[in-house]
Amino acid sequence: MYGDIMDKINDSLFEDNKEKITVKRIIGHVLLIIFVLFISFYEFPYYIDTPGGLDNLNERIPIEDGYKAKGSINLTYVSEVKGTLPLLLIAAILPDWDIEPKESVDLGTLDYKSNMVRQRILMKQSYTTAIKLAYEKAHKDIKVTKENCYVIYVFDEAKTNLEVGDMIVKIDDIDIKSATDITDILSKHQIGDKITITILNNDKEKKKEATLIDDGTGKVSIGLQVTSEYILESNPKFKLDYNNMEFGPSGGLMISLAVYNSLVKEDITGGKVIAGTGTLNDNGYVGPIGGIEYKLKGAVNAHADIFFVPSEENYDEAIKIKEKKHYKIKIVKVDTFDDALEYLEKNVMKK
């Protein structure tokens, strides 16, 4: 009988130990999973730039009764991702993936998040400027009914609580319908004056303040950099949907070419895959961009026939990369929208 009791006690202890070992294993597995997830998703202070691809603009900005293209007109872009450990390890191996410290993608006083807000606004400004120019070049009716004026930079010396992303709605209860309105109001003030500014941000209206400062030349300033997104009225009508993953103004040239091609009967693509990059201002001048090597690589990977690029530094860099990598793509330098259009009309369009 005594032996039976001891056997039962031993069995009970064995079962208890067994349960303890099982619990420890479960806890260990859970902790291991948490650790792996943490390492996989923790964002280090680095970003990774990689070649992008092509974004076909043929259907991005549909025009009422617009003409169809046999070829395509495409944006090129840089893919940028946050530096998690797995991606950093891959970037250390792949030659086309570059690791950038977080500080290198900040802009002056702007951190990465604020800079992305700025780049988003610049993208909208680029789209509306490009559409306006395309209609004008195609001799179609278009007019600016209003300008949404956004803060895209606040200088250190500014004395204001305005932030990047604020849309200026009123100054001292005077409606702001264009950037000129801001200049006109400030011209009636003196350095040191305080003004009240009504802004819109994330669909919320707020009142903010600023004490006017000297801009360095003796003129009155709030200490901001402001840009405008045009509100347009046109005939034929167009529909504009922004790509949520797109940032920056470098698509201006290609957007304008794509919209122009939808407005005119002649197909300027000639059935080719047309890619490129470059900012665009109201007068049709093409400006420099960043990330040319990634954009060119993306165009090559997508088998583009032609790559438009701003002249001087961007063009020189693109040619060097082409020669080094033995790319077959045709690189065309442009200073203006008219340069790109003339090239397509003379060398690509099917007569």
Key descriptive features of the protein:
351 residues; alpha+beta; Pdz3 Domain; six-stranded mixed beta sheet; five-stranded antiparallel beta sheet; 9 helices; 17 strands; 38% helix; globular
Please tally the helical runs, counting DSSP H or I stretches of 4 or more residues: 9
What proportion strand?
A: 25-35%
Rg estimate, integer Å: 28 Å
Rounded to the nearest angstrom, the distance between the terminal CA atoms is 109 Å
Number of strands: 17
* Estimated helix fraction: 25-40%
CATH topology name of the domain at 142-235, in short, is Pdz3 Domain
CATH architecture assignment name of the domain at 142-235: Roll
Structural class category: alpha+beta
Please, could you describe this protein's structure?
The protein is α+β, with helices and mostly antiparallel strands. The chain has a domain at 142-235: Pdz3 Domain (Roll), CATH 2.30.42.10. 38% of the residues lie in helices and 29% in strands. It is built from nine helices and 17 strands. The strands form five sheets. The chain has a six-stranded mixed beta sheet, with helices on both faces. The protein has a five-stranded antiparallel beta sheet with strand order 5-9-8-6-7, covered by helices on one side. It has a two-stranded antiparallel sheet with strand order 4-12. Helix 4 (112-137) packs parallel to helix 6. It is globular. The mean pLDDT is 84.
